[in-house]
């Protein structure tokens, strides 16, 4: 596996890593839209609801293992920077073992898992029946879906995000083609959507394994003493555990935002859901430069090059700052038009427009939190990420308690922005110690 020197940092290299990630992220909502559209051709509401609830249940289960991508990226980037080929390859094998083990674990526990999910989110008998058919098929791709997280993180660590883009395009493109074939041509309905995803995810895993073949076809994968070395395993467990806790708290913040928004009525709830798409766009776009930071910072940390670390932080942040300003301008100028595209309801359009200024402010005030996440992941400073997320959530909860009674939905959005700002400030306070440690 060949990676550029941590000292070889140019703007071209930053863009080479960042742009494919942004393009890759753009395929995610397209696939969801196609899944919905093909079952929508059946002319019934139940199949649409079944695919939606089934996808949400599996996404929530798989999302727990999102740490596998981030943790693998940070640790592998450092191993690459240190020139440690054995540990670089051992990390890939460990990630694959975790992914396969977790996936087969979920297959074995599918009955109680799905029962619990429908207890939390009950649906009509028709929707539940179809959703169970969907879940009963898709769960068998769990080992592939989770293992791909590890493969993606390993590729990102080496700056090979072009291959991540190819992998994502292949997986989602095949899924879309099979959607049309199985549902519209063969008439398999909800089961066809699930089967398309099942085939696409296992096919994507095979392509991913081919892409990272250099990590296990050179004999390193048989070095069980290194793969199961207690100190390395402990570090990997600590990093991944911290990231998982951090991510769960972040998710609680977003879920609580949605639930609290429901208290203001259906129209405001719908408007908030529309406006959240602006945050998702910001997140997908910023993820490119945060990912570049993960790879470049991690390699600099592994090489013990403080100057390279600082340069990686500065260069990725410069591009992120430019993107932040661009997003804020786009939202300010075209925000009302984007809202009109996302909803045809006059009431929802009017209410969403009232809160649009928060979307203009979100990139400007929250951009630092996204970038610092990438920097701290690359440095595997997971404990700081976890602790600062806990502190930030405390400020968010306090802001909700104070601002919502006074300002209603404006107070809710203000609390969310405060959540972002405090995350950025607290991580920025910890950054000097990160740099000094090199």
Write the layout of secondary structure elements.
Elements (H helix, E strand, L loop, with lengths): L10 H30 L4 H19 L3 H15 L3 H24 L1 H11 L4 H14 L3 H16 L3 H25 L4 H22 L12 H4 L2 H32 L4 H38 L2 H37 L3 H9 L1 H23 L3 H26 L1 H28 L2
Helix pairs in contact: 1-2, 1-8, 1-12, 2-6, 3-4, 3-7, 3-11, 3-12, 4-7, 6-9, 7-9, 8-9, 11-16, 11-17, 12-13, 12-14, 12-15, 13-15, 15-17, 16-17
What is the count of helical runs?
17
What fraction of residues sit in β-strands? under 5%
The Rg value, from CA coordinates, equals 22 Å
User: Would you count the extended β strands for me?
Assistant: 0
Identify low-pLDDT runs: none
Taken in chain order, the helices and strands follow as: HHHHHHHHHHHHHHHHH
Give the biggest beta sheet: none
Based on CA inertia axes, which overall geometry fits? Answer: globular
Mean pLDDT: 90
Helix content, binned percent: over 70%
Total discrete domains: 2
Pairing-aware structural class of the strands and helices? mainly alpha
Distance between the termini: 24 Å
Brief digest:
The chain is an all-alpha fold and 438 residues long. The chain has helices at 11-40, 45-63, 67-81, 85-108, 110-120, 125-138, 142-157, 161-185, 190-211, 224-227, 230-261, 266-303, 306-342, 346-354, 356-378, 382-407, 409-436. The longest helix has 38 residues, at 266-303.
